[in-house]
Amino acid sequence: MGKTLFEKIWEKHVVKTIDYGPSVLYIDRHLIHEVTSPQAFTGLNKRGIKVLRPKQVVATADHNVPTIDQHLPIKEELGRLQVEALIKNCAEHGIELYGLGHKYQGIVHVIGPELGITQPGMTIVCGDSHTSTHGAFGSIAFGIGTSEVEMVFASQCLLQSKPKLMRINVDGELKNGVVSKDIVLYILSKITASGATGYAVEFAGSAIRSLSMEARMTICNMSIEMGARCGLIAPDETTFNYIKGRKFAPQTDAWEKAIVNWQKLFSDRDASFNQEFHFDAADIEPMITYGTNPGMGIAVTNNIPTSDTINENDRSGLSKSLAYMGLQQGHAIKGQKIDYVFIGSCTNSRIEDLRLVADFVKGKKKATDVEVWIVPGSKQVEAQAIEEGIDKIFEAAGFNLRQPGCSACLGMNEDKIPAGKYCISTSNRNFEGRQGAGARTLLASPLTAAAAAITGVVTDVRELLN
Amino acid sequence: MKALTTIKSQFVPINIENIDTDQIIPARFLKGTTKDGFGKNLFRDWRYENDDEAKPKTDFPLNQNQFSGEILVAGKNFGCGSSREHAAWSILDYGFRVVVSSFYADIFKNNALNNGVLPVQVSDQFLQKIFQQDYSSVLNIDLEKQTITIVSTGEQESFEINSYKKTCLLNGYDDIDFLINMKAEIEEFEKSVN
Predict the structure, then answer these.
(1) Parallel/antiparallel/unpaired status of strands A96-98 and A57-60
(2) CB within 10 Å: which end of chain A, N or C, has fewer?
(3) How far is B37 from chain A (nearest CA, A)?
């Protein structure tokens, strides 16, 4: 019986298995940030022990940081204290910190891949659920809680039960105006926000294969929104070409050796999955969410479901969701006025996302009563955008290009959406109050968000494409 | 972590499905560097109008005096979304030792178990039976027997729990002690792969 990609990686990392219990899983890379690490460091200090493998830990400050005037001290007191705690803790334990002011600082799931830290065949964890992003490289990458952060600090291992296995196949060609964010929102609308709970999900199929690494990261990023333990895509030439030459990628002989190993990372033809889905890329339209969980999405040309037409999983919450969102059952979503556009987050804030937006808005101006925030995923993305002149395009369009951080994805810093206002966002969650108490989030691709920035309403971007 | 063997108590029902961790503990409360004081911010935005403690929302069960106890009963897919362990800390700090639902998100379930909060998974039918009970109804959860009982009617269901996690919870053991004691084996493993 063949093995799946997940099983091949899992088996190589099991230190031992407890009878009737979880496995002790070795962790190759531990990414940390300022919000979910302080209590873990305190726990270690209380035990009088140090981080076991500091060289396998990489830190950044991303959730709490302001996205303007980053050269100044953080104004908000608690946020400043948290970031200071991270600086102190990293220094005490010998951990590399790419903090504010460092040329590699950025959203943790953007900097890992761009620095070549994320590699195929690894186990990667972080105290953040969107750690699933790194699975796009063919690694087992998942989010953990603060107690587990402490466990990995102390032992470089975690106790984990092996999940079930799911494969989601997307085959065929994407239509014009449809990008990888639409693929994952489409999948979510079909299998719901709990459809993959308990599963490691592998994404496969010709449409997935055709995507760039950044586009693949968008899909794996949102596998947690289906409840998945993690999301993986088997590595291939696209993956190897992306990694080659990056700062922490293997070099020369080590590179050749790595490629030989990475080429073995795929699911065997006769491997079996507990559950499998097949989707046709041609069925996918530009998507947008209307409700208060990421599975509540529709094609931008469709009407908001009614209690009769909505899937069973979301039926009980539909009225409450729509009341919060100020939207009506059965109505069109196209034409809904929006107040804010947020292009950012670990889902869509990489250079390809910014280029996509820039190419679309070049020569156009934003709608008058819309505020547009573009938050690049890292200092390197920001620098590259400036080098390519993308900042000038944004400026001419009236868009506000800010500095890297998680920003309005979760509004922990000052970048909050006011109560009752509509924000079309390239982020990953539309829960009640996510972007600010009372904020109304519509999740979409960077292209769909860019179109709304220009028209001021939810728009089918294809009507504006040449 | 505090050991848990049996809990016999009234319960607080929140009959809403897909409760995500942003509702359990909004992001603006994640700025602390300790594990303390999260209970007062549990379900903050569902509890208070405009974040004002002087304006409790009267239709929210945590504000309704007839409900009390160490058990929270919630609709399916409880704890979905962000991995914030602060969600488990706020539930524990508020005073709940047990959550009862028909389905849990994975990361939340692990975080709860790692903090001595027991997530009891029951069938949809049993969950609805509990929601139909009077506010004074008492539930008895026996971790050793893996049963949950509606005391007044005697209706009972068994629940699953990983036997390693069960042992930890019954005794108040935590995973870190276990892993720290494995240091030699972990170093052996590292040598074997390099």
Answers:
(1) parallel
(2) C
(3) 13
Q: Which of A197, A257, A430 to mutate to test the interface with B (most CBs of B within 10 A)?
A: A197
Q: What is the pLDDT of residue A78?
A: 92
Of B18, B27, B180, the CB nearest to A317: B18
Query: Span A57-74, mean pLDDT?
Result: 95
- What band does A179 get if pLDDT is binned at 50, 70 and 90? very high
Chain A positions touching B82 (Cβ under 8 A) are 128-129, 410, 429
> What pLDDT does A311 receive?
85
Note the pLDDT of residue B174: 87
pLDDT higher than threshold 90 for residue A329: yes
Task: Say if residue A8 is exposed, middle or buried (CB neighbours under 10 Å; 0-12, 13-18, 19+).
Answer: buried
Question: CB within 8 A of A312, min separation 6: which ones?
Answer: none
Cα–Cα distances (Å) from A140 to A145, A257, A263, A350, B103, in that order, read 16, 20, 16, 22, 24
Backbone angles phi, psi at B56, to 5 degrees: -65, 140
What is the interface pTM, i.e. ipTM, of the complex? Answer: 0.94
End-to-end CA separation in angstroms for chain A: 50
CA A366 – CA A424 distance, rounded (Å): 14
B76 contacts A155? CB cut-off 8 A: no
In this complex, the residue of A20, A155, A229 whose CB is nearest that of residue B179 is: A155
pLDDT band at A19 (very low <50, low <70, confident <90, very high): confident
pLDDT tens digits, A21-39: 899 999 999 999 999 999 9
Q: Kindly tell me if the per-residue pLDDT of A313 is higher than 90.
A: no
Nearest CA distance, B189 vs chain A (angstrom): 6
Top residue of A13, A18, A83, A129 to mutate, by most chain B CBs within 10 Å, is: A129
Confidence of residue B194 (pLDDT cuts 50, 70, 90): confident
Contact A145 B189 (CB under 8 A): no
Closest residue in A to B112 (Cα–Cα): A145
Do residues B149 and B129 lie in contact, with contact meaning Cβ atoms separated by under 8 Å? Answer: no
Chain mean position to CA A283: 24
Is pLDDT at A466 greater than 80 in this prediction?
no
**The two three-digit tokens of residue A277, written as one number:** 């889905």
